[in-house]
Structures are given as C-alpha cells and as structure tokens.
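If you are new to this repository, start here. Below is one unmodified record pulled from the training split, so you can see the exact layout before writing a loader.
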Amino acid sequence: MKVFQPQKRYRLHPGYIAWILHRVTGILLGLYLFLHIWVIHYLAQGEQALSLIHIYIFDIAKYGDTLGLRMTMATNGTLLTRELVEKMLKANIQRVSISIDGATAESHDAFRKVEGS
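And here is the target side for that same chain:
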C-alpha cells in the first residue's frame, strides 16, 4: 500500500542564494557609483557650478560642516563677489583656493591651450 506523503518544502541551495545576493548587491553598487560620480561631476564643474547652484552649494557646505568635514572650495575667482564671500564665511568654508593660470591673457591661453579662455 502506497502512503501519501506531502511534498518536502523546497529549499534554495545556499550557493544560489549567495549568487542572487551577489548579483543584487552588484547592481545596487553600480547604481550607487553611477549616482555618486554624477553628483561629484555636477558639483565639480567649477565656475559653472558656482553660477548654477550657488544657492544650494552653501547649504551643502553647512551640512558637511555639521558632519565634521572640512569644507573647501576651488575657484578661478572670476565670479567671486562680496556677497558670495560672506556666504562662504557663514557656511564655514575653511579654505578657498584660487587658480591663476597666467599673469597675462596670452600666458593664460598658452597654459589652457584655448584661445580666449
């Protein structure tokens, strides 16, 4: 006489579970890196970023300061005004580096290799 036995509960092999987790974390890491690089690229556009997002850049700097980070800013100085410098001070930006690529327009263009830059 054959006795009915309920089917055993199906279990996934631990190796298969590890493979799925590996794939999911890889996808999430790739997404994180893409977003991280995009944000860094967006914030690191120099004077373009300063003119486009100067409203938010100081809020970001204040937030970084509350986290205990040393906030710095690099600029060529062409868009600096008294108002922006006061905002930098309020945001506790501790260091500002100003790039000077040449004493004259000719030496600057020679360094940048772009005429009229």
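Two things worth knowing about this chain: The first helix runs from residue 14 to 43. The chain is about 55% helix and 5% strand.
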